[in-house]
Structure formats: C-alpha cells, structure tokens
Amino acid sequence: MLISDLLTPETIIADLKATSKKQALQEIASYAAKQLKLEDRAVLDVLLERERLGSTGVGRGVAIPHGKMLGLSKLYLLFARLSTPIPFDSTDGWPVDLMFLLLTPENAGGDHLTALAKVSRLLRDEKMCMLLRGSENAEAIYSAILEHEQD
Question: Which label site among 35, 64, 88, 126 has the fewest CB atoms less than 10 Å from its CB?
Fold first, then answer.
C-alpha cells in the first residue's frame, strides 16, 4: 500500500484556515464528509472520540487524526496544510501545521495500522515535511509525495 494509492490532489487542502484544534477537525471532517457523502457530524464525532483517548498530534508540527467509520467501503486519506500553525495538545507541545486524516472501514483490521504506519514514516522525514510546508498547491504536494515514494 502506498500513500499515493489513497491520496489524490482532490483530497489535499493546501491552505486550511483554522485557528483552533476543534475548528481544524471540523473543517477536515466537513471536507471528507462531502467527498464520502457522509454526514459532517458523523465524521467529526469519530475524530473527537479518538482525540478523547489522546491527542493525535504526534510532534514536530504533525497530527494524524484517524478513526474507523461505519459505511465506508475503503480507506480514505486526506492531507491538510494549515495556513497558520495551531495548538493541538501534541506530544512535544509544538503547534500543528500538517495534518493527515485517515478514515477506515470498521472491519479494516490491519489496513488501518498499515496506513497509519505509512503516513507516520513519511512524516518522520524532515526533508519531506519541509517539502509539504513549502509546496505551492495541492498538485505540488501530491507530486512531492509521489517522488518520495519512488525513492
């Protein structure tokens, strides 16, 4: 499984405007819900439920909100770059400006963990994070991810 198998330029938000963790989660939930033809609130509830277990802010300006959803037939991945970093209760205390949203079917099993591991590995690469932060638009972000996976 490659990130580029799950992500498209249409599932990339290159300039998400949010001033808080809650607003950022609401925005990405709404965006995902429209694409998946689900209710905004259903997606947001899954994300908030996961955040109650502990922040998905993994450090170095990165968050990976995720959860399992009823009604999904396949994994869904969305990337958002925030226009301004926001507090996110991250493990290192840094504000977040890069977010990957991962939604998986309830019966996804190991696919959920595999996708989380792939995203986590991508975002551990400091050069990759710099490219994501510096790319001009969704297409450039997608190209940077494709190039990274081909290396």
Answer: 126
